[in-house]
Design brief:
The chain is of the alpha/beta class. It contains nine helices and nine strands. The radius of gyration is 20 Å and the shape is globular. The relative contact order is 0.17. The protein binds adenosine-5'-triphosphate (ATP) and magnesium ion. Magnesium ion binds next to helix 1.
């Protein structure tokens, strides 16, 4: 399996020195090691979830992969490029915990935004817009929102807003999706539905997915591999991958799988790995 995401001995530290005080002097340098010696390779078409205690650095890892932050040490490549380049070229897409939609744009204009920003005629958008109409409707259909194209975000529920964010992340037809607890704020039924939708997109589009979640069940249900991070900032060094659980459950996965003893067994394995990870320095 060809590697599509590679993180090679990554460290990320933040300078958390106090802000300048009355005399304009910065407080003493204080470095917070968030991630230390973190190496991860994700193969093309793989679905990998990341779990770990709150504050261990999961979002930090995702931000590094999305080019939002730079590593202090180590090398990262996504689709053979630096992370920010991969995002810019539309090879990877990112979905955050909050949908982060533009309130003054309708659902379809939010989904169109990545194309608009790349269009050579972006400065005179109205006549150019029509050429994208079919593809945006198709994307909204993909996330079952075709009847809500003209709605503004504040008229959509949380789950619908997150679906708009997913459609937007798919606009440039990426190979890799990076998701940070995208369904954390949803009720269980909606979350189940979104999980099934995500799996359908994953299979139809042959995506590679890196998925951050708090939920072991969700990680097991979706993934081929669950990686577990250590406590990180609460211990002496930054967080790293300390356990890995392979999920051998067959695909395609349906909700009925959640009643299967093999599923319970995999969840138990994940829970044990997470518990053990708390004690690894
Ligand atoms: N810009 C920043 N400057 C300084 N410290 C930061 C910054 N961003 C994150 N941190 C610190 O890095 C650590 C890891 O944060 P991160 O958001 O990656 O955790 P997380 O695993 O995603 O947590 P959660 O599960 O609660 O979302 C925390 O201690 C946080 O305070
Ligand atoms: Mg987080």
């Amino acid at each position: 399996m060809a590697a599509i995401v590679e993180m090679d001995h990554i460290s990320k530290a933040y300078d958390v020195a106090a802000e300048p005080g009355l005399l304009g002097r910065r407080g003493p340098e204080r470095i917070l090691d968030v991630v230390t010696n973190f190496s991860l390779t994700v193969g093309q078409g793989e679905f990998v979830s990341v779990i770990g205690p709150s504050g261990c650095g999961k979002t930090t890892v995702l931000f590094l992969l999305a080019g939002i932050r730079d590593p202090t040490e180590g090398r990262i490549s996504v689709c053979g490029r630096r992370p920010a380049e991969s995002i810019r070229e539309g090879l990877s897409g990112v979905i955050f915990q909050q949908p982060i939609l533009f309130e003054w744009l309708t659902a379809e204009d939010n989904v169109l935004l990545p194309l608009r920003l790349r269009d050579p005629g972006w400065w005179w958008w109205p006549p150019r817009r029509a050429r994208y109409q079919d593809s945006v409707r198709q994307l909204l259909r993909t996330v079952e929102l075709e009847h809500f194209a003209r709605y503004y975000p504040d008229k959509l529920s949380g789950g619908m807003q997150q679906r708009v964010a997913i459609a937007r992340a798919l606009t440039l037809n990426p190979q890799v999706l990076l998701l940070d607890e995208p369904f954390g704020a949803l009720d269980e039924i909606t979350r189940d539905r979104m999980n099934i939708e995500l799996l359908r997109l994953y299979e139809e589009r042959r995506l590679t997915i890196l998925f951050v979640t708090h939920s072991i069940e969700e990680a097991v249900f979706l993934s081929d591999r669950v990686i577990v991070m250590s406590r990180g900032v609460f211990s002496r060094t930054g967080s790293s991958i300390v356990r890995e659980v392979r999920i051998e459950l067959p695909r395609p996965r349906r909700l009925a799988l959640k009643e299967d003893p093999a599923f319970f067994q995999a969840v138990r394995q994940g829970r044990v790995a997470l518990r053990e990870a708390q004690f690894v320095e």
